[in-house]
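Before relying on records like the one below, remember that each one covers exactly one chain. Contacts with other chains, cofactors or solvent are not represented anywhere in the record.
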Amino acid sequence: MLFNGIRIRKRGRTVKKTIVALLIFLCITVISNCKKAPEEINLEKREPLKTVERRSAGKTVRIAVGGMVTPKEGFAYYRRLLDYIGEKLDRHVQLVDRESYAEVNELLREGEVDAAFVCGGPYVDGHKEFGMELLAAPVVYGKAVYYSYIIVNKDSHISTFKDLLVKRFAFTDPLSNSGKLVPTYMLARMNETPDTFFNTYIFTNSHDKAIKAVAQGIVDGAAVDSLIWEYADRTNPVYTSRTKIIEKSPPYGIPPVVVRPGLDLTLKEALREIFLNVHNDIKGREILGNMMIDKFIPIDDSAYDSIREMKAWVAKQESGKKSK
């Protein structure tokens, strides 16, 4: 079911509870659309970003930045980074914004963009399905890994993931590792699925919206990217301060920068060189500092094997349930 642009699922026969939850959600959403107070959450689809282009010779390089990758406030720094890349390449660079990982993967598959910032889960899918290639990976807080955080409202009595039984939950993107695969894997280990465990669950289409949904009581819990939660908590903690982390996953390979298969080798190597050296000059370090990135490094495909293992385990469990 689609509700105000956000996918909503219901559990079992808890129809009355779900209707009440939906009515509450509708009221809150309507209020947030009518009032411009900063404390209100707006889960409406974000308007497309304007593109960033350099006025220089050469064919345009198109780089996608999904709405899942960074909080809304962080997009300005991605614009600056792509502007920086354009200067180094002496070519036009266009920022392509999409709301879902599936859309970004499709652009890469069809050759509509040359490179993209993606999550570990979409990389694993894209690498398997059409040969998406790794280019580089960020180092954040000294490491090239990240986590899935299970968060609840800071005033909630919920203290473990199991306490979210028959509660309202927010996933982020269907292809997200931290925002969907990890909690689904946790449920599978409990012999549960999102449909059997939660009363209601939604897809918010971004991690910052999931954090806001928990902070404002729209949902009881959510699974979010640790990098985005930590970034928001350090730069604008108005919503993170109203949440608490009740579970932290094992580390996973950090969301990488990727390129489409068949990209011109000269361009691919030029992009790799820029990413790996952006921290070596003053302007580059300033941009990375605002993004809370230490630097970019090469990363091996094996860094994402643990994500593949989770995907395989969940698929096996789901297949077993269907065969019964």
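The radius of gyration is 20 Å.
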